Description:
By secondary structure, the chain is of the alpha/beta class. The protein is built from ten helices and nine strands. The strands form two sheets. A five-stranded parallel beta sheet has the order 2-3-1-4-5. Helix 2 links the parallel strand 2 and strand 3. It starts with a strand and ends in a 13-residue tail after the last strand.
Amino acid sequence: MRxxxxxxxxxxxxxxxxxxxxxxxxxxxxxxxxxxxxxFVELTSDADFINDKVALGIDxxxxxxxxxxxxxxxxxxxxxxxxxxxxxxxxxxxxxxxxKETRREHPLAKNGSLMDxxxxxxxxxxxxxxxxxxxxxxxxxxxxxxxxEVVKIFDKDVDYTxxxxxxxxxxxKFGIPQDADFVFDVRFMPNPYYEEGLRRKTGxxxxxxxxxxxxxxxxxxxKQLSDMMTFLAKEYTEKEHRHQLVIAIxxxxxxxxxxxxxxxxxxxxxxxxxxxxxFHRDIINDSYVxxxx
Length: 293
């Protein structure tokens, strides 16, 4: 039997995860009172129960009773009952934005500010973060990307390392990404913008990719960048316990050189045991191509 407890910060994506698990034929129950967990485990562990895959959503809505959860889980372990904990997190700024967009009320913000409620929730459920088998930071994830992470863990049984790496291309003309952990400038590379046949193409096109990568400095930079990020990803995962890294690659307009290098870096580090994705922030902004900036 596979028994999964889905928990974490309110607004971090628990509903999405439970729906994804349902699609994978898990029997899902959300917001079960903590005191009923032992009985629920007993019922679902019965040989005649309809499903051998169960997911239970637990969060701050349990109120003060959530404080009893640690003892309950310890007793389950003492009784050799196996379960997994998936903890969903997101930055406080992102959670505030999500709540404002949906106009939902945070469970702990009824008598104070939204940020106060979020901070108080972090304190109360910190013990769950500490015992989690898997942690997913959903701050920069789209719904489909979160679903993909859940499938990797609970359907494909990938050896999940809790690290999501985003390789992002951008144009300096449009500003440096505020959520970037590392920013690299590739404006020293040959610029396809000055080639009439390449100006309206992007780094996703083979002609542009070949033009940029034919330069020795481009190949040398990519090799050294790949080696460095391979090393740092391991260090941040094992020593800093980070769950997300954003690597930003910038050129002038964010269409040619940065896209090429971002794609090449993605191809290089996607073989690592992490969840890696590539995102081109400014590739659709054609004002640079039109000569408007």
